[in-house]
Amino acid sequence: MARLPRISPVGVPVHLIQRGNNRQSCFGAPEDYSAYVGWLKEYSKQYAVDIHAWVLMTNHVHLLSTPQQEGAMSQMMQSLGRRYVQYFNYQYRRSGTLWEGRYKSCLVQSEQYLIELYRYIELSKNGG
User: Taking residues 41-59, what's their average pLDDT?
Assistant: First the structure.
């Protein structure tokens, strides 16, 4: 059975969460964080997704972003996920999956939730 397509309307902010499989670490060194952020920037530009806020935790990622064209969010996350997993598996001499299935996403439809989400992401960056 085919997966249902993601609902990600153009111009509507989305909260994305991507977790490590079995809550395992997805970032083992500072270089890993840099690689992920570099590819996030590259693919967000390529697929026209605005990135408003992000935090990379040891075993998961939070993104607040807005797609500017149809299907952009899924394309960006698919490309980013594949590229990072290839890198991670090569760096740590491992194979197999890194992510816990598909990323989770939630439309940000109220200004109140948008502000709370920004706050949560920024506080998470600072350890709070």
Answer: 97
